[in-house]
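EI: anyone free to look at a 202-residue chain?
SC: sure, send it
EI:
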Amino acid sequence: MTIRIVLADDEGLIRDAVATLLGLEEDLEVVAQAGTGPDALTMVRAHQPDVAILDLQMPGLDGIEVAQQIAVDAPGCACVIVTSHGRPGYLKRALQVGVRAFLPKTASAKVLADAVRHVVTGGRYVDPELAAEAISAGASPLTAREADVLELAADGAPVEEIAQRAALSPGTVRNYLSSAAGKLHAANRHEAARTARARGWI
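SC: here you go
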């Protein structure tokens, strides 16, 4: 049986490399690629693959939002999240929406291929180190967007720069930062970022 895959990552070089490596496996076939969340959904709807491999952070919709919609549009498609941002909060949110595997981009092609095979048979795969961090971190009160913005603020970037990098308006960024600080009982965004980072939430 050939496992049909839709691969989504906004970094073309990484996407092409992963597609090439997966294509070397006799039982795996990348039937479509996408560079944004909405495009990933379009490809999944069109091709009805066995597995969707989704980058966590993509323009338009993040990988978890895409996975949530795939559960509705293509319930037979198992979702695998790959990320360079292995925060515990993301892992928990991914599992809540039915993602079958969650692993870092530092994983080898063999680990990814094995995870794909595993989820097709109904199994789950979570990177052991990420799983241990998630257990020790406890539940994050932050939404994914609040965590993203707070992470960008952690290095002292001004609101305008954060807005540009997150593709949000400055006013929306301020709202997220204010909300995050309130949830973490922090005096300001810098204290909120330190608290969130210490607890593994960003």
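EI: The CA atoms of residues 92 and 134 lie 7 Å apart.
SC: 👍
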